# Entry
Amino acid sequence: MAVTMRDVANAAGVSPMTVSNVLRDVPTVDEELRARVLRAVDELGYELSLTARQLRSGRSGLVTVIGLDINDPYFSALASSLAAGFASEGIHCVIEQSRFNPGGERGALTGAHLKRFDGVVLSSVGLSYEQMDSLDVNLPLVIMGEHEAPPRFDHIMMANIDGSRQAVEHLLASGCRRVMMLGGSETTTTHGMAEARTAGWRQAHSEAGLVADEALVIPTPHYTPTEARTLVAEHLRVDRSIDGIFAVADAIAIGALAGARDVHREVPTELQVVGFDNLAIDTLLNPALSSVDPGMDWMSQMAVRLLRDRIASHGAEHESEHLVSPARLVVRESSGRSEA
Amino acid sequence: MAVTMRDVANAAGVSPMTVSNVLRDVPTVDEELRARVLRAVDELGYELSLTARQLRSGRSGLVTVIGLDINDPYFSALASSLAAGFASEGIHCVIEQSRFNPGGERGALTGAHLKRFDGVVLSSVGLSYEQMDSLDVNLPLVIMGEHEAPPRFDHIMMANIDGSRQAVEHLLASGCRRVMMLGGSETTTTHGMAEARTAGWRQAHSEAGLVADEALVIPTPHYTPTEARTLVAEHLRVDRSIDGIFAVADAIAIGALAGARDVHREVPTELQVVGFDNLAIDTLLNPALSSVDPGMDWMSQMAVRLLRDRIASHGAEHESEHLVSPARLVVRESSGRSEA
DNA sequence: TTGAAAGCGCTAACAA
DNA sequence: TTGTTAGCGCTTTCAA
# Structure
């Protein structure tokens, strides 16, 4: 019923192979035949079956970017940046959520589903080390993440500890003495993002000759702004000594700013706040949010290159690469009161 | 090289057809054979080729959601909502950007690419009527959009004019007399989103017995917060009579809040601001942003049902559906000063 | 209830 | 430079 390559071939008076060669820009095709083929394509309204091409050639020309939740501003910024990078390499990419689509039956992380693509970029947020380790995919896979991943995978991460250290060092230098570690984790066993950033918080304290009060580590189980808002308001009400907040993510920091407002603590005069991610919205907030810039553009550029090369070398053996993007603190209105 | 259905069939001592039946949950398979097949699948680590299945059956089990830019907070909220809806129907969906991937050669909107999917949800933002009209796809397609779309497509839109009218009516009732129409459009010929929302602005004025000053319609060519911020600051500096801003989208309104701050205009006492979209972040802003709620969850629910039914009825003829979601104003801190 | 044959639409490999 | 042959891995159809 649909027009096939054979129909085009018949209309143009050539073999299907020649049509295929024209459509794949194989350079050895005679100019006149090429013209005849393209005319027939046009007249018949032919559209290539990419499914059939993929079955035969093993290539889909498609890459997928998988993250927990597209509505998370960090992931949507990352996905957008990756999409721009892939587009400039002529690679088409789609974006998927692992939320609602876990490894289960028809999920985004199953081998059967992933085989539709030539490569995968996986944001590790929300995935445990074990979940990643159990992935048994046979295609190029780059993990982008805030925390440790199994060493056999290519992995691009940010300087969690150093970035956090910079942020808290800045808060301490700006006069804070009681800095809440919002979204932090007290456990030091695993290598998650929250743990690493909490380690930076501790490190900054000890480098300043201060003792970090572990009671100031406040986990945010769901990592939502609303949850952070409530938690911050509660803690600020009870403990008026808190004079700084370092949040593990800007989404959390934005909630913290709202929570501080709820209990009438003025930022930055009474309370200083620093986040992590350097989202575009930070400059628009009132007060503008100080944040650690994780170097997202650099990371997505690296991810695109790495995946492009892995795909091009078609499964050749390789050492896995592990890159770390340097972090850089950006001070805005929410912190940096200069007096002590 | 990869394990195929035939390998599984051989290992289980059955025909490939039986393996296929087991994997598709065809109920007429003997329990013992089913068990043998599943054991063989497990032992061999077999993974179905969804590509081959699609080539043969014509179904991919996949739907795509296409929007201009995932980094836009409205689209990412919409996509997330749609993904949740599709997941609850057992349909897997991917998300694509039309930005960087236009109709060109290998774009997201080409027929060849779209044929990979069983259905499409297309956000019309950033697409002209003509671009949509030139789409010649043969699969279920639902357009979700703020503006008019060709009548042959199923279309779910929001009550642009009424929502805007409510917003501006509220501003006028709250004492505003010079309400900037930010992101509006002076042309009344086309049926775009900006035009419809500007029409609501005019309507509210005439219903209040006032004359809308067309000089207060300020277009934002790129629809970015930063651009809006600059424009608002410039206009407020020049024209101190402006006492209200209605922005066509919350992203724009957020920029407007920042711009007002840049020129030290206090919201809501000196200037009231209302946006459109009711994004989750609105409640976290300082001041919290009043906004028109377009009923996104309702719209995405409708889109999911409609597409699911279109897919199930496999190309049967149908009247196209056109649904409009009612809009509802949510007043927060940025507007609603009660004195006149 | 299970299996054999055929072919979805394309391209790799080879032959002309 | 073009064409022929074969088959990617599955499911539709029909026979057993």
In short: The first helix of chain B runs from residue 5 to 12. Chain B has three domains: 5-48, 62-158+296-326, 160-293.
